[in-house]
Q: What sequence folds into this?
């Protein structure tokens, strides 16, 4: 089966995020926080449209930083869901890029 040409693929954005909280979170807890925040904000349909994908190899436990890949058209919806998340800390965006290489420059 042939792959789709780049012009027909869905465009993605990579967001570098940081958790500001008193307690340290494991990767699985961060996945639960992000998915439940999106599900509570926009439901099943919104969760499937945003297509969040947390990159485990980019998760930094000591600094509580992680990278999420989202659909470009729903980036603002993803940010709004995190802002309204039912979580005791703050999750904020450090940098946004169209490629992982662009995030690594910081």
A:
């Amino acid at each position: 089966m042939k792959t789709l040409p780049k012009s027909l693929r869905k465009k993605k954005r990579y967001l570098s995020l940081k958790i500001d909280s008193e307690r340290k979170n494991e990767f699985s807890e961060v996945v639960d926080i992000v998915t439940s925040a999106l599900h509570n904000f926009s439901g099943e349909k919104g969760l499937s449209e945003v297509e969040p994908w947390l990159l485990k190899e980019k998760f930094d436990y000591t600094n509580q930083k992680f990278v999420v890949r989202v659909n470009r058209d729903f980036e603002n919806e993803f940010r709004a869901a995190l802002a309204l998340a039912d979580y005791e800390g703050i999750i904020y965006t450090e940098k946004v890029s169209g490629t992982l290489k662009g995030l690594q420059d910081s």
